[in-house]
UniProtKB/TrEMBL annotation:
Residues 1-400 are annotated as: Disordered. Residues 41-53, 126-140 have a biased composition (Low complexity). It comes from the Eukaryota. Residues 7-37, 78-94, 145-189, 196-363 have a biased composition (Basic and acidic residues). This is Uncharacterized protein. Residues 373-388 have a biased composition (Polar residues). Signal peptide: none annotated.
Amino acid sequence: MDSNDQNDLKKRLELKRKILQEQKRAKEEEQKKKKEDEEQSQQMKKQEQQSSENIVKKQSDNQSIIDDNLKQQLNEQQKQKEQQIKSEALRKQSEQSNQIMSLQKKENSQSTQNNQKPQKQDDQKVIQITNKQINNQQKTFASDQKGKNKFIEDNNRNQKEELQKKNDEPKPDQIRQDKEQQVQEENKKQLLLINKKTDNEKQIRDQKHIKEQDEKDKQNKQRLESEKIEKDRIDREKKEKERLEKEKQERLLRERQEKEKQLERDKQEKDRQLREKQEKDKQEKMEKLRFEREKQEKLRQEKEKQDKLEREKREKQERLDRQERQERLERQERERQEKYDRERKEKERQERERQEQREKEKQLLNSKRQLERTQVSQKDSDSIQTKKQTQERIEQEFDNSQQQANCNIYEEGEIVCPQRTTIVSNIPLSKNVEQQQPIIENRIRKAGQRHCKIILQDLREKISKYNSKDNKKKQKRLKKYKKAVFKFLQKLPEINDQQENNTQRFLEVFNYFDNII
């Protein structure tokens, strides 16, 4: 129904637009006619002026005849104009009445079909507006006609006054003028008689013409009415067909709309079911994901707990191992110290024995020397042999002491530095004094041993700390570092009071490896 209302409104607007266009066209035609009338009146004025000038110049007896002819021409022209104006007015009125009747019928049919009060009010407004416009046009037409008639009468009166003024002017030949006046009067009389006859004939002709015109108008009216009735009948049939067609279209449209609505409802129902299914699947998926996350979270927590327990267990084991290692190292250190003390005491005892032996040998040597002085020639060979034997024995004892004092390498990082000793042999006294000097660098070696042990213990702790998948690279690097330090300590030479630069080199290398970590 909304589309039908819109179509009706469009039709009414188009009709209104057409009516306004026709009114504009009629106004334009009237303006054109006014312009043409003005041009004709100007031409008439020019002709009258020319004719008056000719009359004044000629001053002939035919002046009155010309005036009468001019008047007759003017009257005929005025009558023709009036007839044209009347016929045009009648034609316009008939056209406007036909348009109004057609509009009224269309509006009545539309009002009966729609049965809507606002539309009736709009149609009545349109009719009132058109009636007002028609009345205004008629008023303007009547006022224009009156103005034209008045204008023509004023022109005629002015022309007569000018002619009279010209005629009343003083003339040189008064006698000739009198004769001319007499001739003119006679001519006027004759013209009056002729005019009367012509007027009578003209009136008869006009009456006949009016009767014929009335008959034609009646015939035209009858013809127009019959055409109008036929047109109305055709319009009614056409409207009836249109109404039936419209009802059919509306019925089909309603059926189609109902089908579309049903399809739309079915589609919405399917969409709703699909959404519900998707929502349900989504909920199930979310539930599964949540359950999976919870499961993973539990597994992660259990794994973390297990890792924590293992780490604590490993740390505890490492602490125990470290403690055991520390105790073992301390025990080994004590054993080494005790062994060193025993060896030192044994060496001191042996040294004392050797000293006593040397003193005895010295006494024997002194006694032998005394004997040799007395028996040099006899025992020279025997003394040389005994010296060689004693020298060989001293060298053998010195080699044995050096072999016992060599370094012993135990577990990785547990290094026992060599304990340097000197042996007093049966050599000259000055050499024994040099070899028996105390070994001061033993304390330096012990400090180096402790420092190396601390380094290796720290490395072991770091390796155990980084014992995980993410820190395998660090663990490998620390193991390489540990091996490098261990090899470096193995290759480190003995330290004595003349090798302080080696200790400084050791500390620099250690700082280098520490910076790598």
